[in-house]
Design brief:
6-stranded antiparallel beta barrel; 3 domains; 5 helices; alpha+beta; 4-stranded antiparallel sheet
């Protein structure tokens, strides 16, 4: 079966512009971050114990078990160890800025060996280090797994992903990463979460209205100066907090996000499409081969021959046409195409063709 899609641009006068989604004031804290103030990734390698014969027996795991026992003054050679109740895991976490020693972090554990499940296990004390090799936190605790795996002699039942899990408040911060809100010269840099010259300009105007001179501006950053008297004082944090509460109307970048693997399409409410006519028809062609064999009589001089028999069936449905005689939004177009029974995959092709023809005024993002 082959499906044909025909998309025709209709030359029609534009009617009234469709209603655009209402604009909202958004706080700067949702639009920008401060350069130099960020999260850091930390990681470590540890052991999970207490598994129900779902662990691994890799050489690395047995070696680590032997090392742990030696630290406890128990000398056992790793060649004498044999247990499937232990698993080697990688432990990861994000260290937020300004956390002090003693703060708690959530951690994620993932099996490194061939363990089949981490359900019911407990992570032993594991140091978590940063890219510089320094230990910033220590993790330990029972693992919460959002899945399970049950095996029998001839069948296995599995739900979700049992070889990875989380430990809520599973790590204690032992060291911090130095963070500075401003440079030594009193300059603060706002980094836009969604770079754009128009949004950066609006943010700069808001900063100027708050009484701080803007010293630099591009599509991704806005630089401004604060009085030297605020540097290294609690007033600097209050100043930044007040600025982060200021609001602007951001410039909305119209996008249509298409995930063809899952058939999901997400479009902004204000995505505009010029006047178009869309026609869709189904053409089905079926080819069936049923060869017939001609067999000669026994003990005759005849030869066996194959006589081909081919059957062709062609079925074409009447095309359904929808004319959109004015500028519309993507939401209105989706409603209009629903009468055609258009699938998400077909709608993806329609949006792509409209973009190529210049009738779709939005950015297409394919996942």
């Amino acid at each position: 079966m082959k499906r044909l899609l025909l998309i025709l641009l209709c030359i029609a006068p534009m009617g009234p512009t469709p209603a655009i989604a209402q604009e909202f004031n958004i706080p700067l804290s949702d639009l920008v971050t401060i350069q130099g103030v960020r999260k850091n990734f930390i990681y470590g390698v540890g052991l999970i114990v207490g598994l129900n014969a779902t662990g691994d027996q890799s050489k690395g795991t047995l070696q680590i078990i032997s090392n742990v026992l030696r630290r406890l003054n128990i000398n056992i050679d790793d060649r004498q160890l044999s247990s499937k109740n232990i698993a080697l895991v990688t432990v990861t976490a994000k260290l937020p800025p300004f956390l002090t020693p003693g703060s708690m972090l959530d951690v994620t554990v993932s099996s490194t060996g061939d363990a089949s499940s981490l359900f019911g296990g407990t992570l032993l004390q594991t140091p978590l280090q940063g890219a510089d090799g320094r230990v910033y936190a220590v993790a330990q605790g029972p693992v919460s797994v959002g899945g399970f795996q049950v095996e029998g002699a001839a069948a296995t039942v599995r739900k979700n992903h049992p070889t990875a899990g989380r430990i809520a408040d599973g790590a204690i911060v032992e060291d911090t990463v130095p963070m500075k809100l401003a440079t030594d010269t009193g300059e603060i840099v706002f980094q836009l979460r969604e770079p754009g010259f128009s949004s950066a300009r609006r943010i700069a105007e808001r900063v100027r209205k708050s009484g701080y001179p803007v010293t630099g501006l591009d599509a991704a950053t806005v630089r401004f100066q604060v009085p030297p008297s605020l540097i290294d004082t609690p007033m600097l944090a209050e100043t930044v907090a007040d600025l982060m509460r200021e609001t602007i109307v951001p410039v909305q970048v119209q996008r249509i996000v298409i995930n063809e693997r899952t058939g999901t399409i997400v479009a902004g409410h204000a995505v505009l499409i010029t006047a178009v006519t869309i026609a869709q028809g189904d053409l089905r062609i079926t080819i069936a081969e049923s060869p017939e064999v001609s067999q000669p009589a026994p003990f005759s001089d005849g030869e066996t021959t194959v006589v081909p028999r081919t059957t062709l069936e062609v079925e074409e449905e009447d095309s359904k046409i929808v004319s959109l005689q004015r500028g519309i939004t993507a939401a209105e177009m989706a409603n209009s195409l629903s009468v055609l029974g258009v699938t998400p995959r077909d709608l993806s092709e329609i949006f792509h063709a409209l973009k190529k023809a210049g009738a779709l005024h939005a950015e297409l993002i394919f996942l």
